[in-house]
Each structure stands twice: as structure tokens, then as C-alpha cells.
Amino acid sequence: MPAPRILILGATGGLGRALQSHFSPRFQTSTLGRAELDFEKPDTVSAALAGRDFDVLLNAAGMTSPDVCEVEPQRAFLANAVTPQVLAECCQKRGARMVHFSTDYVFSGEPHDVLTEQDETLPVNVYGRTKLAGEQAVLQASPRALVARVSWLFGHFKASHPDNIIQKALQTDDLAAVVDKVSAPTSNADICRWVEQLIISHPDVSGPLHLCNSGIASWHSWAEAALEIAHRLGLPVKTTRVQPIPLASLTQLKAPRPLMTLMSNQKLGGLLGAEIRSWYDALEEYLVEKYQPK
């Protein structure tokens, strides 16, 4: 079987750039950025895709800031629900497979065991509601689509929570992070490897699938883990301790956040035939690559 031709949307974001970096050396890949495809203008989608040849569409685009979504709900609905639906319709007509990236924010965050793909979704903010609407619209338009739910991304190409906390710790020992919000930090690099395996070896897998590393963390424990690794790597951080604070203390946030969104990766591990490594191991690998390049 020839290698699939891959079209990546959202290639200027952290995950999109990671996907492009991963796939482009060994696959025929192309990208569409905001200049060619504005996700707030779904009526332009068909024309933007018309001249593109692809077998798999990886959609890592959308409006991802919960606070922006909260104050701009109509824009968020266009970007996160309407345009993905049109993309899925185009894929269905072409016989192409769509991998649509979604989020742990489709869940309510109420106290719960580890969340499976079958658990009830009940988002608490506009971002989560529009992403859930996007999931449903994509699967209705293209039942063979794969909806990849991800959480707390980190990796090369875009600074995330561990990068930011390390940069602050190089300047000050006065650090704080939320202790009562928990999920699974997830490596963009691991997501890329999983997606490749799913595309090549599991072409019939569809519906929601949780793509996240193993283990559980709060923003607080994630921050302290990053600082401990940074200290071990010889970075002159001023502390490895972070003050724990409640999410409710962040009064500047415009959108409510779900507190508990730890997703199960058991289905993913079963498909890939391997245990999914911990977020800590993935974080350590990333920071070693970043701060101790060969």
C-alpha cells in the first residue's frame, strides 16, 4: 500500500507544527494555514481544499483559548464546530479519513474516576461546548472520522506550562500554580507517533479516542516536576518548589475550567499493543532534548 498523502490544518500551532515535523520527512504532506483557510469562514473551506490531494486530513486548527471563546462564542462556534463539519463533509465525499483533534474540556470536571470514551460529556464553558459540537458534527458528517481528544499539551514549537514555569524560576523563587485542577499532561511528540500508528495500522478505528500520556498531575505537580528535571539538568533555577493555589483564586479567568478531566488511555494502549508511557517520562525526554541537545 502506498503511504497516505497527509494534509495538516493548524500547522502554525504547537501540535500542528509537531505533526508537520513528524510526518513531512517520510510522507507526502501539505499544510493549510490561516491565510489559505480561515476557520471563521466555513463557506471558504471547499474552495481551499479543491486543489489539494490528500488521503488523510489532520485537523489541529480551531479556537483554543477558553477565555477568548467565552467572550466570542459565535466566532468559537464557527471555528470549532461549523468549519470542522464542512471539513468532514469534504473528506466524506473524497473518501479521505479525517483525524479531528478535540479536548478533555468536553467533560464537566466533576469528581469522577478516570474518564473513558463512553463517559458522559458535559462541558462547563463555551470552548468545551463548541468542541463537543464539533466532535458530534464531524462524526455525523463522516462516521469513519477519528476524534482524538488530547489534554495539557507540551513539546517543541510552542511554550507550555512547564516551559513557562522554568523561565519564571530562572528569574524568581516566587512561584505559584493551581493544585486542584487535574488531568494528564501529554507530549506532542507522542501524539504524532500514536497518530502515525493509527493511520497506518488501524485505518478502520473511528469515533472518540483519548490520546494522552499515563499518570495524573495538577498544574502544581506538573510545574514542580518540570523544575526538578530542570535542576537535575543543571539549569540555574532559583527553586524547585511552587506554592499551591486553588483555581478559584485566578479571578482574572473569564471562562470556568473543569477541575477533573483525567482521561483513560486504555483503549489507545490496546490498539497500539503497548503500554502508554507516563507524562513524567515524556516530559523528561522533552526537557533533555531542549536543554541538553546533542
Describe the protein:
- The protein is globular.
- The chain has a domain at 6-158 and 186-214 and 263-277: NAD(P)-binding Rossmann-like Domain (Rossmann fold).
- It has helices at 14-23, 45-50, 66-71, 73-94, 126-141, 161-169, 188-201, 219-232, 266-272, 279-291; strands at residues 6-9, 29-32, 56-59, 97-103, 146-150, 153-154, 176-178, 182-183, 186-187, 207-210, 217-218, 243-245.
- With 294 residues, it is an alpha/beta fold.
- It starts with 5 loop residues before the first strand and ends with a helix.
- The longest helix has 22 residues, at 73-94.
- Helix 1 links the parallel strand 1 (6-9) and strand 2 (29-32).
- The strands form four sheets. Strands 2-1-3-4-5-10 form a six-stranded parallel beta sheet, with helices on both faces.
List keywords for this structure.
NAD(P)-bd_dom_sf, two-stranded parallel sheet, alpha/beta, 10 helices, Rossmann fold, RmlD-like-bd, dTDP-4-dehydrorhamnose reductase activity, EC 1.1.1.133, dTDP-4-dehydrorhamnose reductase, 294 residues
